[in-house]
């Protein structure tokens, strides 16, 4: 096998400057930013280091979720609508958009940073599993209008928050 070739399925190597090395050599920082996919998809091999990054981010995200949810519910006066989870979901979507925009704009957003922030922090912070449970609870109580508003608002406003976050840090990136 030629020295510059990598096996299929292996992630591209990075130089000391964080630039991707491909079969044809090192790409520029501009090319890396322009072609980088900003999702939380992880291509880093399983390692103890990766677990520590996800655990550290997840711990911080879970604590932040709990604190924000409790504060929001107290501020709302404990209504029937699950405002705490709603606020956390929208905030999580906005943060995901901000981080996604930063990932597109800055070459320093490497695999470790993505593991810590997107998988760990936001994975611990966002609460769409609670969203499903609370929606089912509203439906079981016969609160169809509240459940519809909760689902529609979470999805539509969540997508809008992601696009807003990307636009705030990388104008034009949210369009394509």
In short:
The chain has 176 residues and is mainly alpha-helical. It contains six helices and three strands, in the order βββαααααα. The protein has one domain.
Keywords:
64% helix; metal ion binding; 3-stranded antiparallel β-sheet; globular; 6 helices; 176 residues; fluoride channel activity; mainly alpha
Write a structural description.
The protein contains six helices and three strands. It is mainly α and 176 residues long. The chain has a three-stranded antiparallel β-sheet, with no helix packed on it. Strand 2 and strand 3 form a beta hairpin.
Mean pLDDT: 77
> Could you describe the largest sheet, including whether it forms a barrel?
3 strands, antiparallel
What number of domains?
A: 1
- The number of distinct helices, counting runs of at least 4 residues, comes to 6
Q: Note the beta-strand portion.
A: under 5%
Q: Output the radius of gyration.
A: 19 Å
As laid out across the biggest beta sheet, the strand order is: 1-2-3
Coarse morphology: globular
- Determine the fraction of residues in helical runs and give it as a percent range: 55-70%
Q: Determine the structural class based on helices, strands and strand pairing.
A: mainly alpha
- Regions with little confidence, pLDDT below 50 for 5+ residues: 1-7, 10-42
**How far do the termini sit from each other?**
37 Å
How would the blueprint of this fold be written?
Elements: E1 13-14, E2 20-22, E3 25-26, H1 29-35, H2 48-76, H3 83-105, H4 111-125, H5 128-140, H6 144-169
Antiparallel strand pairs: 1-2, 2-3
GO molecular function: fluoride channel activity; metal ion binding
Membrane topology: Multi-pass membrane protein
Pfam family, one: CRCB
């Amino acid at each position: 096998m030629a020295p510059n070739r990598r096996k299929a399925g292996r992630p591209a190597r990075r130089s000391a400057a964080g630039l991707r090395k491909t079969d044809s050599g090192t790409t520029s920082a501009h090319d890396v930013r322009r072609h980088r996919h900003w999702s939380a998809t992880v291509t880093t091999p399983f390692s103890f280091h990766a677990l520590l990054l996800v655990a550290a981010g997840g711990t911080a995200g879970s604590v932040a979720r709990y604190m924000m949810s409790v504060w929001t519910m107290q501020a709302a006066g404990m209504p029937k609508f699950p405002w705490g989870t709603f606020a956390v979901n929208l905030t999580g979507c906005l943060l995901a958009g901000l981080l996604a925009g930063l990932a597109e704009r800055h070459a320093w957003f490497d695999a470790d940073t993505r593991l810590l922030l997107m998988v760990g922090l936001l994975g611990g912070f966002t609460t769409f599993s609670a969203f499903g449970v609370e929606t089912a609870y509203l439906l079981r109580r016969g609160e169809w209008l509240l459940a519809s508003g909760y689902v529609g608002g979470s999805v539509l406003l969540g997508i809008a928050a992601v696009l807003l976050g990307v636009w705030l840090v990388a104008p034009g990136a949210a369009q394509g």
